[in-house]
Amino acid sequence: MNIYRRKFQPGNVDVPLQLVGANIKGVPWVMFWGPDTSGATPISCGGKEVIISNYGSKSYKECKSSTNYPASKCQDAFQNKMRDSFGAMWYSSAEGIGAWIQVTFKDLYMVTKFEVQPRANPDERNKVIELEFSDGTKQSFTLINTDKRQTFTIKSVQTQYVTVRIKEVFGTRNNGGAYNFFGIECKNLQNNDDSKEATGELKAAGISPKKLPPLFKPPKDKVVNLSCRESFSNSKKFLKTKMGLGDYIIVNCFSSCAQSSFSVYGSGKYTKDSVICKAAFHDKKITSVGGQVIR
After folding, report:
1. Which pLDDT score is estimated for 114?
2. pLDDT, tens only, 199-256
3. How many domains, the chain?
4. Phi and psi, residue 125, nearest 5°
């Protein structure tokens, strides 16, 4: 069996499917989905997209930069004033390529886009900037040689900080800029306030969370998956099964077995060397889409 794993960001995911049958052994294509359990706890991101880099806001924690021009501070880049003036923009000290500034958030956020305000002087504008995130990934963006504010969409990533690094410039003096980063909050799914609030809303609506049906409900009895060739004679899956009067076994048959070339002998009652699933289809105990049958 081939097993593949792929991670998706929260949101709608389109999975293209092709109409292909299962193989002769009755093995279909199966997909499982759920939260990423490779980390410590599952994470959910959602809510309204807001500016998360504003100095003094509930999401802003701190900032730092490679250098600061006299009377300039790194937090000036995150005041949401977006203009080239002291207190409204970060200025590096005689740095161009290689200069950087970093903003750290108080919690985990999914960043979605950002705005950048270039320097007014063409000799101090950046051409290419690189964003680095706390998961180690990087994304690069090319700026237009203008003093107009520019907006870029970020390939969504969960992060605790963003580092802006200058990679190419139109000119070098005191390069810098002002930035707005937008995102949505990410929360731990275990013991968070949202889950408690959701439970409260269900109770208020007269719905008991304990009575909600599960997405997948396993049968009370053990189900035996059979391949298309298995009969009572050749299958080893029944060797350790103790059967008494009134006992039964639930077997699961795949749709591909309906058209298999294996033989059955009998009608209504079948010989023990008849393949079980083909006999079930033949006796119309299950339809062509497959399913479970009691043996």
Report:
1. 97
2. 555 556 555 555 555 544 444 556 788 888 898 888 888 777 766 666 677 888 887 7
3. 2
4. -95, 150
Q: Is 281 exposed, middle or buried (CB count within 10 Å of its CB: 0-12, 13-18, 19+)?
A: buried
| Type and span of the H or E element at 61 | strand 60-65
Q: Which residues of the chain have pLDDT under 50?
A: 1, 37-40, 215-219
Tokens of 188: 């731990």
Neighbours of 231 (CB within 10 A): 22
d(CA 212, CA 209): 5
- Residue 293: Cβ within 10 Å count: 19
C-alpha distances in angstroms, 250 versus 46, 48, 241, 259?
42, 49, 12, 21
Q: Which domain holds residue 143?
A: 50-188
Element (H, E) at 138: strand 138-142
Identify whether residues 260 and 293 lie together within a single domain: yes
